[in-house]
Amino acid sequence: MRSYLDLVVPVKRLDRAKSRLVGAADGGIGDRAAHADLVVALALDTITAAANADGVGDVVVVTSDAMLTAVLRTEGIRCVPEAEPGLNEAYRHGASLLGRHVGALQADLPALRSADLSAAVATADGRRAFVADRQGTGTTLLIGAPGEPLDPRFGVGSAEAHRASGAIELTEDWPSLRCDVDTEADLAIAAGLGLGPRTRQRFRLSA
Fold it and tell me: Which end of the chain has a smaller Cβ tally under 10 Å, C or N?
């Protein structure tokens, strides 16, 4: 029987998320409501693409933001609050609520194509593996081995940390899976790949 990968996607509170993107949604004005809408759009486009990927089962979002939780639940997305602060703690908490084959996905991949994620899951083929970001230093996706702890090591230099922990680096060309967004320049690169519909609508405000 086929094994599906369940995914954990943590998202910070909207008043603290993606601070370097403040102003990207409104031509540099920096309105907090516009920024929150952009962060929600990033997450929704990422999660929707992930949920539609072949080989992916459940997707759970770990967040303590009430507004984000309400929006995601309206879209039928399962949300749980943080148990402890911290990105790796959020991944571990989410993983504890899912099945025996779990992965960790970043929430800022607005150009994500379901086919790229499906290909990564298939290439991992049950091995503990990771996909580095566009710069090669961070991690956008960590896939645990079935029945084993996820052991997330996200943070500065996470690609090397995951490599050192024994995870296999997947090096295939999946641009949409590698293009995480921290700055407006990153968002412009993601736009060149093709943004998801919600982010495309929000980012037009700065065009």
Answer: N
The residue extents of the domains of the chain are 5-206
Q: Check the annotation: does 63 bind a ligand.
A: no
Known binder of ligand: residue 206? Answer: no
Residue 132 — very low, low, confident or very high, per pLDDT cuts 50/70/90?
very high
Percent of the chain whose pLDDT exceeds 70: 97
Domain 5-206, CATH number (from 1.10.443.10, 3.40.50.720, 3.90.550.10, 3.40.1190.10) = 3.90.550.10
Q: How many CA atoms lie within 13 A of 11 on its CB side?
A: 33
Say if residues 184 and 23 touch (Cβ distance below 8 Å).
Answer: yes
Q: What is the pLDDT of residue 203?
A: 82
Return the pLDDT at 147.
Answer: 94
Spatial CB neighbours of 165, under 8 Å, sequence gap ≥ 6: 151, 153
